[in-house]
Amino acid sequence: MTKKKELSPELKAECDAAKALFMSKKNSLGITQASLAAAADISSAAVAMYLNGTNPLNAKFASVLSRQLGVPVEKFSKRLAKEINGLTSAPEMAVGFGGSAAEIVRNMLAHQGKGLTEDARRRLLAVAEADDDGALEIDYYRPGAVGDEVWIAHYDVRAAMGGGQIPHDYPEMFQDVRVSPQHLREMGVEFKEHFHLKMVTGWGQSMAPTIKHRDPLLVDVSVREFAGDGIYMFSWEGHLYIKRLQWLGDEQINMLSDNPRHPPLTIRAEDTYIQARVLLVWNAHLL
Questions:
Q1: C-alpha–C-alpha distance, residues 279 and 266, integer Å
Q2: For the chain, is the Cβ count within 10 Å smaller at the N or the C terminus?
Q3: CATH code of domain 145-286
Q4: Are both 9-88 and 145-286 of the same fold?
């Protein structure tokens, strides 16, 4: 496992300042890491990694934190305040200053989209054009139905079945998978909406023989809380895992491996950030 590079003193100081403001105002404003995560459309684990100085602050999170705390971005990051001011002062780069969402995306693709596939370009632009009509979807990889078949995004997220993987802030996509939701349900896979289904990759041996190293996994990203004993993808202590979780009571969870060589571990529920529930190993092993 590669150790995550520590932030520079300047970036760490920004995180410390943001955390100090959050801690000083959270009780009076009734803000929690979970509510902050919801406002920023990220996980609670990602919020913790910003505030604890594991990941550097970015403009999006800084803007949300500023609004939630009622303080200017300059209070914790002059660097990001300058960056945000630069973005909002450019008429061609902001919807509120003369440009549509589609125009913004076209501009972005022209300058920064050289590494994207044509399909990714098409989907990004389609979402932006939908936004101009007031129909923007939060997940721009939401697959569309083709008959009874839908596309499920396969993300480059390696969730460790062992020592843990440091999660990416912005996962890339592998090749999508085309499946039939009706067929999945006939196999016993339970889910509400097919656009909540994603593919990730298991990494390691601790869940063998149920999940083997590099097995593709079908997960439901709408499950963000413990919903009964089962296999989950979750963050704990800044790392991403795929393990069985079993509720012990008194805010304690048992983290279990199917490989008997890996002993169980008791962890606290408040330190565990569930990202998804694993529904199916893509080798016909129903979970």
A1: 23
A2: N
A3: 2.10.109.10
A4: no
The β-bridge partners of 151 are 178
**DSSP-assigned letters across all residues of 61-77:** HHHHHHHHHT--GGGT-
**Do residues 243 and 228 touch, judged by C-beta distance below 8 A?**
no
**237, 179 contact by CB (below 8 A):** no
What is the rounded (10 degree) CA torsion for 264, 268, 274, 277?
40
Fold entry, domain 9-88: 434 Repressor (Amino-terminal Domain) (1.10.260)
Instruction: Check: CB of residue 239 under 8 Å from CB of residue 165.
Output: yes
Residue 82 to residues 15, 17, 22, 89, Cα–Cα distance (Å): 17, 17, 21, 10
Q: Where are the domains of the chain?
A: 9-88, 91-132, 145-286
pLDDT digits (tens, 9 = 90+) for 183-204: 888 888 888 888 888 888 877 8
Q: For residue 257, name the pLDDT band (cuts at 50, 70, 90).
A: very high
Who has greater pLDDT, 100 or 192? 192
Query: What is the full DSSP assignment across 207-228?
Result: TTTTS-TT-EEEEETT--S--S
Would you say the pTM of this structure is higher than 0.90? no
